[in-house]
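@channel sequence for tomorrow's demo:
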Amino acid sequence: MGPLLNAFLTGGGLCLIGQLIINLTDAKVTPSHILVGYITTGAILSGLGLYQPLVDFGGAGATIPLSGFGHLLAQGSLKAVETSGLLGAIKGGVEAGAAGITAAIVFGYLAAVIFNPRG
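structure tokens (generated this afternoon):
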């Protein structure tokens, strides 16, 4: 399969799992639960070395969903621990995710300024 199809199947599969959890639990599990669960699961799987094969297969389909953000945080922390010791466990995830978080804030602000949202 091509990389685009792999990304589509991986990202779609992750979204399908989240939607099934919401639908099958009769609204006891909210979207907020799913978001936190995906970040936590991504970080745990990354720490165990199980998320990287999914990234290798699915590319952006595995890194763009929130489980990919958990993977990013875990990998940043693991890398920083190697160079900075225990302090790296705290600062590594923040450093790894800083560019993406900053971009989300800046572009979200620009979109709000340009499109004049109504509250």
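heads up for whoever presents: The chain has one domain: 3-115.
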